[in-house]
Amino acid sequence: MSESKKPECCNDQQAKILTAEDVAACCPRVAIGQHELPPLPYPYEALEPYIGRETVRIHHDLHHKAYVTGLNQAEQELAKQRQEGNFANNRYWAEQVAFNGSGHILHSIYWSNMAPPSVRKPEPDKPMLAWIELSFGSFDAMKGQLTAAAEQVQGSGWAALAWNPAWQRLEVLQARRHENLTSWGAIPILVVDVWEHAYYLDYQNRRGEYLKAWWNLVDWNDVERRMAYAMKSCVPLVR
């Protein structure tokens, strides 16, 4: 495809670096070390009977909050290193940014991806379904792969349905902890947490039962919203 015929989203002549003000008009910029725990979009008990009230409360108010606190501390320590010109502890704090930052991002998506059973959108619309079928062959194939990825995480981690701007298609990713085994550039649009704190009070060690229940909470309104934003990203790997 010639340069003149490239769609606007991938046309180098249309590409420009936005100012902080331009970005803030769309998505507020978070200052270094100033991340906040987002409120739940529903009451603690709203996900019952699939995920219990105490699980949601502890998971959000304690575990998620701890990642936000850890991320802020790590960013502040790195800022201090830059100011002092002393990077002796850079490795440790960089690892803390990756761990806690990924934990904060994934948890924020996780809560937003779910909705009370009575109000959630249980199935994707045709445009979303078309991308799923293009990427995986069928909805059931995607669901099976995402479920297997989550169930087969060794220890603690996540599974995610993600849009990859480099490939221009969806893919299923698996993560250990929060930050390991991920794919550069992929944008998660649907995630499921398989750390034990996400399900142990309700399902003990029966991760498969938790995953089956979780599908009854997925809100495709949110997944499709995230897909629409993610698809605006077009960063070709080569010129």
What is the strand and helix layout of this fold?
Elements: H1 20-26, H2 53-84, H3 90-113, H4 126-136, H5 139-151, E1 157-164, E2 169-176, E3 187-193, H6 200-203, H7 207-214, H8 220-230
Antiparallel strand pairs: 1-2, 1-3
Shape: globular
**Main sheet strand line-up:** 2-1-3
Name of the top-level CATH class of the domain at 126-230? Alpha Beta
Which class best fits the helix and strand makeup?
Answer: mainly alpha
According to CATH, the homologous superfamily of the domain at 126-230 is Iron/manganese superoxide dismutase, C-terminal domain
Stated plainly, the CATH topology of the domain at 126-230 is called: minor pseudopilin epsh fold
Gyration radius, rounded: 19 Å
Give the uncertain stretches in residue-range form. Answer: none
CATH architecture of the domain at 126-230: 3-Layer(bab) Sandwich
* Mean pLDDT figure: 91
Number of strands: 3
The tally of helices reads 8
Provide the succession of SSEs.
HHHHHEEEHHH
Main sheet, how many strands, which sense, barrel?
3 strands, antiparallel
How far apart, in Å, are the first and last alpha carbons?
Answer: 12 Å
Helix content class: 40-55%
Strand content: 5-15%
